[in-house]
């Protein structure tokens, strides 16, 4: 009976380790696939399109500090995106309604992008004044 208990424990340990290794392999594969897709979509310049860790931290802090301005703009953007989906799946299909929803979305996207870029510019100007 003691031998059966010992073997059961070993089998359970091997099973847990196997599941863990499988999970790690799947995660690593997904990360590699994501990086490959990013390079395929964005091209070789994708690696140069990121600020340093220090600047990204400052940007995260600044974006969070400006959440009162950015969150409503992002909500509006999500709402206008939902309007595109609603117009695009409505029956009967109305091309003019979809085009109008897309035009509103482009306007909201432009507004949101300008707000975010304003924050980015403030952070970059502040860092430049610290450096020189």
Please write out the topology.
Blueprint: H1 2-42, H2 53-65, H3 67-89, H4 95-131
Helix pairs in contact: 2-4, 3-4
Characteristic terms for this protein:
132 residues, mainly alpha, 4 helices, 0% strand, extended
Task: Describe the structure in brief.
By secondary structure, this protein is an all-alpha fold. The protein has four helices and no strands. The model has no long low-confidence stretch (mean pLDDT 88).
Tell me about this structure:
This protein is mainly alpha-helical and 132 residues long. It folds into two domains: 2-46; 51-131. 86% of the residues lie in helices and 0% in strands. The chain has helices spanning 2-42, 53-65, 67-89, 95-131. The radius of gyration is 25 Å and the shape is extended. The termini are far apart.
Total strands: 0
**Number of separate helices:** 4
Give start-end ranges of low-pLDDT stretches: none
Decide which structural class fits the backbone. mainly alpha
Rg? 25 Å
Distance between the termini: 76 Å
Mean pLDDT equals: 88
Query: Which geometry do the CA atoms define?
Result: extended
Strand content: under 5%
Q: Portion of residues in helices?
A: over 70%
Q: Helix-strand pattern, N to C?
A: HHHH
Strand count, sense and barrel status of the largest sheet are: none
Number of self-contained structural domains: 2
**Oligomeric grouping of the chains:** single chain
